[in-house]
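Sample A.
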Amino acid sequence: MIKLYLLLGGNLGNKQQVFSEARERLARQLGPITTQSAIYETEPWGFESDDMFWNQVLEISTGLSPEDVLANSQQIEQELGRIRKANQYNSRIIDIDILFYDNLITQTEKLVVPHPRIQERKFALVPLCEIAPELIHPLFLKSIKQILAECTDPLKVEKVTETLNS
């Protein structure tokens, strides 16, 4: 089985309900969630919004191909009400990003793994470092803990109350 790391993000709607539903659907369609980070409240990255984001990293054990993971993730986003806009950075009900698919390095028209901007984003690195600090980035050959220590992203990333994480 493949160790898959996904990032959930969203800043619209009932975030607790949407994240819970996303986790249930991901576990059903991709494979069991083996570890999950706390949920973090984060400032919008790359655009202005009054609505703070929630972010969470999931580790999933999957037998699906990267392309099938992407297709299933995008289907779940759509079913939960995600509307994709031309502008890449905007408010959204849910976003599911593939951060790592084992040690795979791939770049196609539809999919880039590892996530190409993870090193710039504390909202992804902080929850990932919580559950996999020693994970080695296959391109940078550095641990997630090292990459987070070098990250210059100044935006706020704060843990949400633990009781909301279930």
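Sample B, a different protein:
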Amino acid sequence: MLVDTSVLIRTLQPHHPLYIPADRAIRLLPEQGRELHIVAQNLIELWTVATRPLGENGLGMTAAEAASQLEKIKGMFLFLPETPAIYPAWEALVIQFRVVGKPAHDARLVAAMQAHGLTAILTFDRTGFSRYPGIEVVHPEQVKY
């Protein structure tokens, strides 16, 4: 199962209302036999949000703070490598599903999932990934003890 950047970001915000379901899901899913993965795209997106100013919907971290968080996250999840198969899969997805604008980032996560044989994503975005057949969208609040 891929962990979406939306979930990773919430794990960095202990006072955010979505922190608890994100943290719980990340703890429970491995106990339930689900392996949790990340890809480079997750870390790039996380860096962007983490280092963006608070007033621009970011976390306002310094580069050093963001680097520390990246190391922590890489230690928590299985980090899948970039492969040459990701770009053609992404291109096929954005053309087939007429993806425009920011959702192209989500399409790249799906392409990485396809390249690595993953079929599920843990995300707060209930609709962004549902356009892709064969992708199980798991919201952290769905994960139960």
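Observation for Sample B: The mean pLDDT is 96.
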